[in-house]
Write a structure and sequence with these properties.
By secondary structure, this protein is an alpha/beta fold. Helices cover 47% and strands 14% of the residues. Helix 7 packs across helix 9 and helix 13 (392-428) packs antiparallel against helix 14 (434-474). The protein starts with a strand and ends with a strand.
Length: 526
């Protein structure tokens, strides 16, 4: 029998000689499990070790490598010190230890808490262990959250990175001190804006003088920073200037909690309303005095134009500059809308500057889309289908059949839902073996999914038939459709839904000098 040993440590180990060394606790886990394997007569296939990872982290590299090898059945046993070393989530206990491992022919053993999937008698104890570990995660998350909330309310800085213009005080934890070199740039930005310079103009001035943006500055100084490196990552841009001019930290107020976690099980965050932010005044030395701050805020409020209609642009998020890769930004001149590279005006050496009108881009995409339609669409089949669908007899009979089928499918769907509830009730009362329960649940879910697809298809067909009947009433000549040259096969305009459905991205190059030709590269979703 081949055993795969899995070890994990979640706390920072101060006894490491170097970053590549395993911690003492990891070494102790390995020694214990190697000895246990030898006593059982098991051959060790491989030792998987994750250091400094929590039991709720599903992105542990060695953990995921272990699961891949288990799926390929490269060993027979997964051996851990405790079940919590493998995972602290009850969901993963059920998914892998009680679900997939038996299907893959893998036995799970944890030494200290006597968990062994070959022993049917301790399944409930494994489930209880999983539940206790889940509670531990939740309680720990709430405890940490309460501690962090208390520190935020008291004005302590708890972030991993200090805001540009400041650095963490090495003598007082949670306190910020001014970093004079970057603070000088912050003062200049506020002063330039108060003198009438626009945000893009300020970005261009800084870029022309070779001043690195906040991310690049931290990288050059060996400070911690979180933003990924991209093309032109050293450049200042409009959003960085705009964010700086509105940040109260520069007047000595601690502002935190702009984002909050969705759940203790995920590291994803979501924006929080300003009413839920933690703002404490006078926690550190200000870089910007109140008079300059108030003047800048008044000027920014006057410059704000409520031009946004709430509509999403036709190519929003889809068009990218071929030179630098940035998403192109919308601009408006009179009644015309344009797309331009956001780095086009922030530096004279930054980018060739892709620029195209929305109207021209729509023309080019329609031309290519209609070419594809003409090349690949079977028009004769389409015409025949439309005529057939608009036939009186066919339409009436099919509509009746579809309505009956839809009603039966929805009735069946409700029956399967009730059946699933009964299955869970029987399982909770220990009236149904685990294997039978899993198989029946999979079968019920599979049938429900098939029914859902049939219901969706029938509803779409009925909606289409209703549209066709309207067309026929309003245009009696529709029966002669087969004689028209191109029914519904040539698009004349695009809408946002069509763009979202058909197009993944559009790469826009710079206009070829002396021509109207703008090179574009369309990446379709099909």
């Amino acid at each position: 029998m081949k055993a795969a040993i899995y070890c994990r440590l979640s706390e920072e180990d101060k006894n490491k000689k170097s970053e590549t060394d395993d911690s003492n606790s990891i070494r102790n886990q390995k020694a214990m499990l190697q000895q246990y394997s030898a006593e059982q007569g098991w051959e060790i296939y491989r030792i998987y070790s994750d250091d400094d990872y929590t039991g709720a982290d599903r992105k542990r590299p060695e953990f995921n490598r272990l699961l891949e090898d288990a799926r390929a059945h490269r060993f027979d046993i997964v051996l851990c010190k405790t079940q919590s070393r493998f995972t602290r989530e009850l969901e993963l206990v059920e998914k892998y230890i009680h679900g997939l491992f038996p299907l893959w022919g893998i036995r799970f053993v944890s030494v200290v808490d006597n968990a062994d999937t070959d022993n049917r008698g301790n399944k409930k104890s494994r489930q209880i262990n999983g539940l206790v570990n889940e509670w531990y995660l939740e309680d720990m998350s709430e405890n940490i959250k309460s501690v962090l909330t208390n520190r935020r309310l008291n004005g302590f800085h708890i972030g991993s990175f200090a805001l540009y213009g400041y650095q963490k005080d090495p003598l007082r934890k949670g306190h910020l001190i001014i970093d004079e070199e970057s603070a000088a740039v912050v003062r200049e930005v506020f002063t330039l804006f108060s003198q009438g310079y626009g945000k893009t103009a300020i970005a261009r001035l800084l870029n022309d003088r070779g001043i690195p943006n906040p991310t690049e500055y931290k990288r050059l100084k060996g400070m911690r920073y979180s933003q990924p490196e991209t093309k032109n990552s050293t450049l200042w841009k409009y959003p960085a200037i705009s964010s700086m001019l509105a940040n109260e930290i520069y007047i000595g107020n601690m502002v935190q909690g702009k984002y909050g976690s969705i759940s203790y099980k995920t590291k994803q965050n979501k924006p929080r309303p300003k009413s839920e932010w933690y703002i404490v005044e006078g926690t550190h030395e200000p870089i910007i005095d109140r008079d300059l701050w108030n003047r800048v805020q008044d000027m920014a409020a006057r410059r704000t134009k409520p031009f946004c209609t709430g509509e999403i642009g036709l190519f929003a998020g889809k068009a990218h500059c071929a030179n630098c890769g940035y998403t192109m930004r919308s601009a408006k001149k009179g009644d015309k809308r344009y797309l331009q590279c956001p780095t086009r005006h922030v530096s004279k050496n930054s980018c060739a500057g892709a620029f195209v009108s929305v109207e021209r881009l729509e023309e080019m995409i329609l031309e290519e889309l209609n070419r594809l339609i003409g090349e690949y669409l079977d028009k004769d089949l389409l015409k025949a289908s439309i005529v057939h669908l608009m036939s009186d007899n066919h339409s009436g009979v099919q509509k009746e059949q579809l309505t009956t089928e839809l009603s039966l499918c929805k009735q069946k769907q409700q029956e399967y839902t009730r059946g699933l509830l009964l299955l869970y009730t029987d399982k909770a009362r220990n009236l149904l073996p685990e294997q039978d329960f899993s198989e029946m649940v999979r079968e019920f879910i599979s049938k429900k999914e098939r029914l859902a697809r049939r219901i969706d298809k029938a509803e779409r067909q009925l909606a289409m038939m209703g549209t066709e009947e309207t067309i026929k009433r309003e245009n009696p000549a529709a029966n002669g459709l087969q004689d028209t040259p191109d029914p519904c096969t040539r698009l004349t305009h695009l809408n946002r839904e069509t763009v979202e459905t058909l197009i993944e991205s559009i790469i826009v190059g710079r206009r070829i000098p002396g021509t109207r030709d703008i090179p574009i590269e369309i990446h379709w979703n099909f």
